[in-house]
Amino acid sequence: MKILLATQKPFSSVAVNQLKELAQAKHELVIFEKYKEQSDLEEAVKDADALIVRSDKVTAEVVNAATNLKIVVRAGAGYDNVDLQSCSERNIVVMNTPGQNSNAVAELSLGLMIYLARNTFLPGTGSELKGKKLGIHAYGNVGKLVAGLAKGFGMEVSAFDPFVDDSVLIDDGVVPVKSVNELYSDNDVISINIPAIPSTIKSINKDILENLKKSVILINTARKEVIDEIDLLNAMRKNPGIKYGTDVMPDSHEKMKEFGMRYFATPKKMGAETEEANINAAVAALNQIIDFFETGNEKFRVNK
């Protein structure tokens, strides 16, 4: 089988070498990196049986061009860059690799907390994380790791996730919260970990943001779409104690700059940019493809 690894943002050389070793016995692995145009991907995928991507856009045009394609694996947790409907119409399986990048993202979350708490390391008196109340919005792989790291800093941790039983949180020493509004209004720091799906897009809006504490740090390592940026701008203008750190540069980045050291966005999405995460996600993606072809395993399938 021909497996195309298509990444505008390349994996580390160590990860690529491991993939080559895994694939060499039974499959042809083609490395397609740093391409410039979407049309280049459409051309490259034409005869591929399987496709591994990172943040690359698997559009309807890509799917239609890939006449042999049977499986797409997004090396990471989020998969909103893949046109699930087009894949389903062609009976193409789409998978993600949940948990493989989670530690890298969680560590970045804590790094952003420290950076903003210390006024982006500019002169002036900052604050410590110890003793602060941290609210985690979605207690999945990343949220759970953020909680563990935060407890190591001496933070008080609570979480809201309607899909996780309270007993799981309690066992982890995390206080369950009954509503999103309670989570945001009662904490000094908020870690946003929700996916971008129809029910969450712009769900962090005026109703939530106007009830934040007078001094609060918002950390978004999820997706920019989950925040209503106009409402966030207005809230930050009204409440000079709000700080916002994000690994997903907002569309309103230029306007956000008015807040100086109260705002920081990474130049590119950096959550999974560690060698360890590169290796974990890439190897998991290839192993899932090999297993799919050998046994039909669809454990991590995300489309119908």
Helix count equals: 12
Arithmetic mean of pLDDT: 96
Give me the CATH fold name of the largest domain.
Answer: Rossmann fold
How do the strands line up in the largest sheet? 8-7-6-9-10-11-12
Helix content: 25-40%
Shape: elongated
Brief account:
By secondary structure, the chain is α/β, with parallel strands linked by helices. It contains twelve helices and twelve strands. Helix content is 36%, strand content 17%.
Please name the defining characteristics of this protein.
304 residues, alpha/beta, Rossmann fold, 36% helix, 2 domains
Q: Which helices and strands, and how do they pair?
A:
Blueprint: E1 2-7, H1 13-23, E2 28-33, H2 38-44, E3 50-53, H3 60-65, E4 71-74, H4 84-89, E5 93-96, H5 102-117, E6 133-137, H6 141-152, E7 156-160, H7 166-171, E8 175-176, H8 180-185, E9 189-192, H9 206-209, E10 216-220, H10 229-238, E11 242-246, H11 253-256, E12 263-265, H12 275-295
Parallel strand pairs: 1-2, 1-3, 3-4, 4-5, 6-7, 6-9, 7-8, 9-10, 10-11, 11-12
Helix pairs in contact: 1-12, 5-6
